[in-house]
């Protein structure tokens, strides 16, 4: 006989989070679903640095100084650490409203706006918030069912509202927001220094070789041999990658340095939030470059509000074959029972105890149902019953 048994199945919260994100290592790593360009970033950095350490560094360490590969290794490790920290962390995703919270917010909005006549457009869902004596508008997100905090925006790629949203960067495979912006800035800064460093010492390597055997002979370098030809091709490829990377990465670093100095985000700069026609002053700027840089790069890092590795317990039913369980006070009745035994067993199951013997005897007639007989006095002859005479006839 099959019995349904309920077991508790442990489910992590990251498995039920909405949005278009991917999670690894039991929710510890959080990224966007579009990660193809991120893999290209890893390939370019690892490939260029591997060529530099394999060929140029050995020659430069002997000819110039052994500190050259050491400093290059420090820049490489720092750039990789900040890249992975930016790509694998929560950028500051704001949880969506629960059904009860969303219904309450909708009731508040309806009560505030009132009934809108048919055919008219409802007013925008906006709340005014004051920051540094300046009114800032909080916009309503129809996807997350919340009023977004100041400087937050909804990322259309990850489908999440991100606090202090800067932009979605496909090169790191994640959004850039309040919780990972400093690591993103340190990544592009260290990558710019690493690119300049490798590009410079590639030129130094070619110059040192040219002083000894000439520039054309350096490019050829024992023509006809396979290793030297491969080395020449790889060196040229390395120089080209660094040259074209310099313009984009160094330019991006300069742009974000400008934003950090003003305590402004890329999203605000593109929309012209503080430089539009109204010329509204940025309420988040301290008016001092040092203070703005300290707040953006050295301020306290807020914890994640997602609780990705929190536990949600769900019950799942599993069927098992076995005898039907019985309670401690129940007994299995014998195979064959008479009417009286069946009555006894039912009384035992109801009362939980064995009834007294009088309770299981044949039912006796009550005083009203018994025939009335005249009692004899001593010495008086018995009175015959009228039924007896009828029986004799």
UniProtKB/TrEMBL annotation:
Region (Disordered): 316-393
Enzyme class (EC, first level): transferase
Keyword set, alphabetical order: Acyltransferase, Endoplasmic reticulum, Golgi apparatus, Lipoprotein, Membrane, Palmitate, Transferase, Transmembrane, Transmembrane helix
Residues passing through the membrane, by range: 37-55, 67-84, 183-208, 228-250
A GO term from the CC aspect: Golgi membrane
Reaction catalyzed: L-cysteinyl-[protein] + hexadecanoyl-CoA = S-hexadecanoyl-L-cysteinyl-[protein] + CoA
Protein name: Palmitoyltransferase
